[in-house]
Design goal:
Keywords: Membrane, Transmembrane, Transmembrane helix
Protein name: O-antigen polymerase
Order of helices and strands: HEEEEHHHHHEEHHHHHHHHHHHH
Organism: Candidatus Collierbacteria bacterium GW2011_GWA2_42_17
Number of helices: 18
Number of domains: 1
Structural class: mainly alpha
Length: about 375
């Protein structure tokens, strides 16, 4: 009973990011504080740990039945951390990674269903989208108590804030309680997918639909069109993988359009990063620190110190050959493969892989990872 209530509260607060940030030496690159590297204790983490503790007996029984894969997984974590560019940074990333895996395992063992999360998900999403609309109208954050739900303080003149050119007029892209409009769009895309595929009233779909449109996220809006035109997820995934393959070569042909050029910038250094750490990778969470010795001094700025904008290449660079082989072998196991080829799961994976061709938030940001895991937990 308590676990069910706690799950509803967690789902309600999924879009928030109230947290206490710490800034040890490894969270800085070239003296610059990097948000991605800051160990953070979120309010949501406390709820997640409480949920795990309530279901610890169930979790331990499951793990005892799966000691071999658990041992292999822990060995990969050990090697990835040991040979990491920044072992302490990787250690904190692995702690969060495993926290989320244990939450996912808890949801599966408790046989989470759509009816368990639909209401709090709708309320939480409604709040996020209403805030997003107000930010768009006021062209700034609203401030006040919303800060404690994760709203960042910004306005249309804040340096580095996302903007959209609307017939020659620069419009601020609202981010609600998220760190970036694209991350918000990815979150809402999964919410829309859930309401789209599960029986729900039309206005339930309209809320995340509107939210996605006013983020002005191109990849999310394109995928929205794919969904509405019922394009098969297999086709989307194949296209995304093919585009991922050719992406590193596009820098030689596209340099005039600044947004595209900036995203392709990292592929120039990707090959060096992959060759330096082929077996174990840079270590989980260490793509940005690996740039410090590769980028020219003039490029060591907050705007340039970001993960490569491709989820597959980011995973490969941080996890190396060992981590990639483990993922592939796990996916090809008969039981796992059957789950992954479930039409609903395939559609969910298509969202992550397609948007991951252009961004990294499903690998790097808590809100996106959690909504994906909650959605996945009810799909099979």
């Amino acid at each position: 009973m308590l676990s069910n209530l706690l799950i509803k509260i967690i789902v309600l607060f999924l879009p928030t990011q109230l947290g206490l940030h710490f800034w040890p030496a490894f969270s800085r690159v070239a003296g610059i504080k990097i948000d991605y590297l800051s160990p953070t204790l979120y309010f949501l983490d406390i709820l997640l740990i409480f949920l795990i503790s309530l279901n610890l007996k169930l979790i331990l029984i499951y793990l005892k039945k799966n000691l071999l894969p658990l041992g292999i997984f822990l060995s990969i974590i050990f090697l990835n951390t040991l040979f990491s560019i920044s072992p302490l940074n990787s250690l904190f990333w692995w702690l969060r990674f495993n926290l989320y895996l244990l939450v996912f395992l808890t949801l599966r063992l408790r046989k989470l269903q759509w009816k368990d999360i639909s209401s709090p998900l709708l309320f939480g999403t409604s709040f996020v989208v209403i805030l997003e609309v107000l930010q768009l109208l006021f062209q700034s954050s609203l401030g006040g108590p919303l800060y404690f739900l994760g709203e960042r303080t910004y306005s249309s003149i804040t340096p580095g804030i996302g903007r959209f050119n609307f017939f020659g007029q620069e419009i601020l892209r609202p981010i609600s309680t998220f760190s970036h409009a694209n991350s918000l769009a990815g979150y809402l895309l999964i919410v829309f997918y859930l309401f789209f595929k599960k029986a729900s009233r039309p206005w339930h779909k309209i809320i995340p639909f509107v939210g996605i449109i006013i983020t002005f996220s191109k990849s999310a809006i394109i995928f929205l069109a794919f969904l509405l035109f019922n394009l098969k997820p297999e086709i989307i995934i194949i296209f995304s993988l093919l585009f991922t393959f050719v992406q590193p070569f596009l820098q030689n042909f596209i340099s005039s359009w600044q947004p595209i050029s900036d995203r392709l910038f990292y592929f120039f250094y990707l090959k060096k990063i992959l060759l330096q750490n082929p077996l174990t990778g840079t270590g989980l969470g260490n793509f940005i620190p690996s740039l410090e010795k590769l980028l020219p001094g003039s490029f060591l700025t907050p705007s340039k110190l970001q993960p490569v904008h491709n989820l597959i290449y980011l995973y490969l660079s941080e996890m190396g050959i060992l981590g990639s082989l483990f993922l592939i072998i796990t996916a090809l196991k008969k039981k796992t493969f059957k789950i992954l080829t479930n039409p609903l799961v395939l559609g969910l994976l298509a969202i992550v892989i397609f948007t991951g061709t252009f961004d990294h938030y499903f690998w790097t940001l808590p809100q996106n990872k959690l909504i994906f895991l909650f959605a996945l937990a009810i799909m099979f």
